[in-house]
Amino acid sequence: MDYLWLIPAVIMGGLVVLSVMSQRGSPPGVQLGRLQAGSPKPNAVSSEPDTPEPQRVEPLSGTREDIRAAIARTGGRITSETDDYLSATYSTPLLRFVDDVEFRRDGALWQVRSASRVGHSDMGANRRRVETIRAALATALESQP
Prior knowledge:
Blueprint: H1 6-22, E1 30-31, E2 34-35, E3 44-46, E4 60-61, H2 64-73, E5 77-81, E6 85-91, E7 98-106, E8 109-116, H3 125-143
Antiparallel strand pairs: 1-2, 3-8, 4-8, 5-6, 6-7, 7-8
Helix pairs in contact: 2-3
């Protein structure tokens, strides 16, 4: 009984280690003209064609500047940018777990991929993030003349 305090300490220590691991690295970028395929783990979503249905989201509309503004409004930090590609990171408030969000221009649309760097499940966080960005883009497009 005197050792029961070890269980939460070990769990918290493991979470801190995962958090530190998530803060290292970078998004995979464009490979063979596409954003990297989603992981078999349920911690990523993508709009790239052939993405399995449970991980599929729709591409986004807007200009590069619209995407940049939506990232800023939703708490992201742009980490890389070209005319046809943007990447950003988002961090969780408490333990600072890092997720990558990438955007690739595909004609008039932007393909998007949002993925956790560590862990198995994100409990829907990446899907919610993409939909929050989509809502920010829609608001910006509605306010344009």
